[in-house]
Design brief:
The structure holds three protein chains of three kinds. Chain A is mainly alpha-helical. Chain A folds into two domains: about 220 residues, MetI-like (MetI-like fold, Orthogonal Bundle), CATH 1.10.3720; about 60 residues. Chain A is built from eleven helices and eight strands. A four-stranded antiparallel sheet of chain A has the order 1-2-3-8. Chain A has a two-stranded antiparallel sheet with strand order 4-5. Chain A has a two-stranded antiparallel sheet with strand order 6-7. In chain A, a hairpin with a 2-residue loop joins strand 1 and strand 2. The radius of gyration of chain A is 29 Å and the shape is extended. In chain B, helix 9 packs across helix 10 and helix 14 packs antiparallel against helix 15. Chain B is flat. Chain B starts with about 25 loop residues before the first helix and ends with a helix. Chain C is of the alpha/beta class. In chain C, the strands form two sheets. In chain C, strands 6-7-8-3-9-10 form a six-stranded mixed sheet, sandwiched between helices. In chain C, helix 3 runs parallel beside helix 5. The chains are: A mainly alpha, B mainly alpha, C alpha/beta. Chains in contact: A-B, A-C, B-C. Chains A and B meet through helix 1, helix 3, helix 4, helix 10 and helix 11 of A and helix 1, helix 2, helix 8, helix 9 and helix 13 of B.
């Protein structure tokens, strides 16, 4: 029986799936395009009517406002662009500090929910329920109120050793950068290199002889010892800039403003609750049989945790953990409610002064979007690398 | 061979008896969980001592020596020693209802009760019928009629006077209800074979999820008026509602997409062999299964949105958080006791969110029970 | 008479306050003996063998394994676990490690062997279960039968005196059961003491020295396979056999 070729189909008929798909997409794009054009033309008209300028040229103009705290010098004659830069560094400052503290606190609480002590388990659960069910903005406002109302005025600041606590914030002795400090840095780097070599040697020794050596405490001791040696070599300078209570303010030393402290505390305690949940579900996701198999093989609890539980739990914990880091960074935008000059605050001020709402919001969104996309990309790379290989 | 007799003649059934050393009950629990090992005992002692020192002081401040009546003099006298809940007694109407006219406050009260009632009802089985949609529509109409007035002999109350708890509940419920169809379409769009639609939906979701809610609210507040034809002004409430809805839709779309991915491919294939079209397949086969699986996540999204409505206080809408500032900031007499006001609204938020999270856990248990054989 | 390698003496166990899961268990297992334990679900079979390596604790009675009495003493438990190998129903292989790493884990970290010796030992065991070519694969890349054979090899790396099998073929597809049973039969011929909870009666007939029937926490009957299958003495044993051998 001779084979027949399939009947020719016209690619343009409505019955072709590809054609239908094309029509749908063209229709959808047309609708969206029309809507976008509508909004755009309205915007142009409105801006013309209200006399609002457009364009990013305002960024080079002098800002005309000063900023409460910044990592580098800024005064009102500097450009808007520099102001945005200050806002970005302020956001990153509180976000990075918050991420570190929240991770430590959240991990401890998450592990605490598996404690053998019923009291510890109960307190950890209570912490998580309490801090997760109250809006973060409210928590920030409460912390800010506590820090500004409960703390005494600057004149009566509480003194704890060299630290001052008052409505003006926390003042601490700051190290003064002396030339000898470079030796400290060199010592630190040398210590890290030594630690790396030690771990390599220890791993090789384990393979050869079966004797396991310290993989954490010894390298840590090496780093600290080398840093100490570097510090001594640099002249052992202990010069610190001590804060001194002046008439109206505490002078010298380093300072953390109450806004920064309130934001840091609020974000840390809130996010730690979520991180605790992530850690807890990661640990719980490792099947009980893994622990039984480890026990049947004679591994003690420490080895079981290190070799079996932790690697598997971390794979489940890391993706939602990075999500929480992103949430913390996005929540830092609430700084505008308590007067901390993060990038949202700066954008708000710039918007009000120049009227360039579209441009400022666009800058704002691009900054956060970049941070999110970078973190997602990093997380995807990590996931691909450690994925448990299946069929 | 083993020691037991090989024949059943030697087999005598042993009746069950209770364990010699009780492992259930209060005392054994304490023995195992509080004093199990020396580390546990040490922890119990330290924590116990801490709590024994802290709790009586807390109870003393918060309950025993607190001032419950709106008596300013008494509050000032007990400052630092007892909590001043009088600030709540004095200001609760402004905190809960915002700037709504005093005499008409029964209207937001009824409206809120109706809204909470239908939210609770939607969670229980007897209400999972088709007419629930109609009921929702009815309640929403009633809500707006009560709040806005201008009909049925009720006086008109502009939206900028709405505030407090009714506003919080309105914003969170309405935004989730409106976001749901948008999220459905976007989730389906993200999984579509048509590249243009898939790209558009992906960009939308990733854009919104990458930026903080405050920037979306700024966009809604400052940019939406520019998008409208000249001369047409839209209410601040509507602008904010649109902003929150767009925000919620992006997160809900991800949740629904997770559910869609979990439906086995075989379901779609079976539907295709039965001759169902794309939309029929989605409506009758895929979505019912997908949505059932992600109900706990949807409830969690609702909890998040409920907490996020507190941000509208930054764009000058007086929800529960904003109303507190309104109530107390202007009044120099009661200002020293603002902290107690914060605790009060924290308690309200906590009760709502805690109840919702418990419900979400209950739903999850129900779903898992159905799946376990 | 030589000392039994495992000795249960009036062992009782409860779950909670009221569920009496093991009732007055008296059992002596001689060195090199192969025992198959069967019975309805919930009868305490798994619990019995899990007591032997202290994955479960008994509340009353005396349990001695190779001269070491099992109590709360951690050192005793560790000693016993080095001599007892266990194969689980769900395999419980470590998915983040290769097959070879799964096997060398315990010899290196518990036995303190150098890597080279541990790898040699591991490859020997993999040869024994005929899966040496998969040494560098990950567990989830293998079929169920292959995974269970790897699990058996992993338990054998400790050179145990006693091997415990907790329903090793219950989670496998039918076509893979044979390859695992073949390995177990070969193992049985090499003189190791084996206790196996299973429903595979063909295996019991081929290999077991003694079949133990358990019901409601008690050992109802124990007899050589020929006697147990052809002349069951107890009513309950007859009932059980009719159910599992009927189809």
């Amino acid at each position: 029986m001779s084979t027949k070729s399939p009947p020719r189909k016209s690619p343009w008929s409505w019955r072709s799936r590809a054609f239908r798909g094309l029509i749908y997409q063209v229709a959808a794009m047309a609708v969206i395009g029309l809507a976008a054009w509508f909004l755009w033309s309205n915007t142009l008209t409105n801006m013309r009517v209200r006399g609002i300028q457009s364009g990013f040229d305002f960024l080079s103009q002098p800002a005309g406002f000063s900023i409460g705290e910044s990592l580098y010098a800024f005064d009102s004659a500097e450009s808007y662009l520099r102001a945005f830069g200050v806002g970005l560094t302020n956001t990153l400052r509180v976000a990075i500090a918050g991420i570190v503290l929240a991770t430590i606190l959240g991990t401890l609480i998450g592990i605490g929910r598996f404690s053998r002590n019923g009291l510890v388990r109960g307190l950890c659960s209570a912490y998580v329920e309490c801090f997760r069910n109250i809006p973060v903005l409210l928590q920030l406002l409460v912390w800010y109120l506590v820090l500004t109302e409960v703390f005494p005025a600057i004149q009566d600041a509480w003194k704890l050793g060299p630290f001052f606590l008052s409505k003006g914030g926390l003042n601490f002795p700051a190290p003064v950068w002396a030339p000898g400090e470079a030796w400290l840095g060199a010592g630190l780097l040398a210590g890290l290199a030594l630690a790396w070599f030690w771990r390599r040697w220890a791993r090789r020794q384990f393979d050869l002889t079966g004797r396991a050596r310290s993989m954490f405490w010894m390298p840590l001791a090496l780093v600290l010892a080398a840093a100490l040696a570097g510090w001594l070599a640099g002249g052992a300078s202990t010069v610190l800039d001590y804060p001194v209570k002046g008439e109206f303010a505490v002078e010298n030393g380093g300072a953390l403003t109450p806004e920064f402290l309130a934001l840091l505390l609020g974000l840390t305690m809130y996010t730690a609750g979520f991180i605790a949940e992530v850690v807890r579900s990661g640990i719980a996701s490792v099947p009980a049989g893994q622990g039984e198999a480890a026990a049947a093989l004679g591994l003690d609890r420490r080895m079981e945790i290190r070799l079996i539980l932790l690697p598997q739990a971390l794979r489940v914990i890391i993706p939602p953990l990075t999500n929480q880091f992103l949430n913390l960074t996005k929540n830092s935008s609430l700084a505008v409610a308590i007067g901390y000059p993060d990038i949202v605050s700066i954008a708000n001020t710039a918007m009000n002064q120049t009227g360039r709402a579209v441009e400022c919001i666009a800058i704002l969104m691009s900054v956060y979007l970049t941070l999110s996309l970078l973190t997602s990309a990093g997380m995807n790379w990590y996931n691909a690398r450690v994925a448990i290989k299946e069929r | 061979m083993d020691g037991t007799g090989t024949s059943a003649a030697g087999f005598r059934p042993v009746p069950a008896r209770p364990a010699p050393r009780s492992t259930e009950g209060a005392w054994p629990w304490m023995r195992a969980n509080l004093f199990g090992s020396w580390q546990t005992t040490a922890g119990t002692v330290v924590l116990g001592a801490l709590m024994l020192w802290l709790l009586p002081r807390l109870v003393d401040w918060a309950l025993l020596r607190a001032v419950w009546t709106p008596d300013l003099a008494a509050c000032k006298a007990m400052e630092g020693v007892g909590a001043c809940w009088g600030v709540v007694a004095e200001k609760y109407r402004v905190i809960i209802f915002g700037r709504y006219p005093f005499e008409e406050q029964w209207r937001p009260l009824v409206a809120t009760v109706l809204m909470v009632a239908i939210l609770v009802a939607s969670c229980t089985r007897p209400f999972w019928k088709r007419w629930l949609v109609l009921l929702w529509a009815g309640v929403l109409v009633a809500f707006f009629v009560l709040m806005y007035g201008n009909v049925l002999g009720l006086s008109k109350v502009e939206t900028d006077r709405w505030g407090g708890l009714p506003l919080t509940i309105l914003l969170s419920s309405l935004s989730i209800v409106l976001a749901f169809p948008i999220a459905l379409l976007v989730a389906l769009g993200r999984r579509s074979d048509l590249p243009a639609i898939r790209a558009f939906c992906t960009i939308y979701v990733e854009l919104i999820r990458g930026v903080p809610l405050i920037s979306v609210l700024f966009m809604a507040s400052f940019m939406f008026p520019l998008f409208m034809p000249p001369g047409l002004t839209i209410d601040v409430l509507i602008r904010v509602l649109v902003g929150i809805t767009l925000f919620a839709a992006a997160y809900l779309a991800e949740v629904i997409r997770g559910g869609l991915q979990a439906v086995p491919k075989g379901q779609v294939e079976a539907a295709a062999t039965l001759g169902l079209s794309y939309w029929q397949t989605q409506r009758k086969i895929v979505l019912p299964q997908a949505l059932a699986m992600v109900v706990p996540s949807i409830v969690n999204s609702f909890i998040s949105i409920f907490k996020d409505t507190s941000l509208v206080s930054i764009v000058s809408l007086y929800d529960l958080t904003g109303a507190l500032d309104l109530a107390i900031n202007a009044d120099a007499n009661w200002k020293p006791f603002k902290l107690q006001g914060y605790f009060f609204i924290a308690l309200i938020y906590f009760l709502f969110c805690f109840a919702m999270s418990r419900y979400s856990q209950w739903v999850e248990r129900q779903l898992n029970a159905g799946r376990r054989r | 008479m030589t000392e039994p390698i495992i000795s249960f003496d009036k062992v009782n166990k409860w779950y909670g306050n009221s569920f009496h899961v093991l009732r007055d268990i008296d059992l002596k297992v001689a060195r090199g003996e192969k025992i198959v334990i069967c019975g309805p679900s919930g009868s305490g079979k798994s619990t019995l063998i899990r007591c032997i390596n202290r994955l479960e604790e008994h509340q009353e009675g005396r349990l001695v394994v190779d001269g070491v009495e099992l109590t709360d003493d951690v050192k005793a438990i560790d000693e016993v676990r080095k001599k007892v190998g266990m194969v689980f129903q769900q395999f419980n292989l470590f998915p983040h490690l290769t097959v070879l790493d799964n096997l060398t884990l315990s010899p290196m970290w518990v036995g303190k062997l150098p890597r080279k010796e541990a790898v040699e030992k591991a490859m020997q065991q993999l040869e024994r279960v005929r899966i040496a070519d998969q040494a560098n694969k990950y567990p989830l890349q293998l079929s169920g039968g292959q995974q269970q054979r790897v699990a058996i090899a992993r338990a054998l790396c400790l050179t145990p005196k006693i091997m415990l099998f907790d329903e090793p073929t219950s989670a496998l597809d039918p076509e893979m059961i044979k390859e695992v049973l073949d390995v177990m039969i070969e193992l049985a011929s090499q003189g190791i003491t084996m206790l196996c909870v299973t429903h595979e009666m063909g295996f019991a007939k081929a290999v077991a020295d003694c079949v133990i029937f358990m019901d409601e926490g008690q050992i109802v009957e124990s007899a050589p396979p020929h006697d147990f299958f052809n002349h069951p003495q107890s009513e309950r044993s007859r009932d059980f056999l009719s159910k599992i051998l009927g189809h």
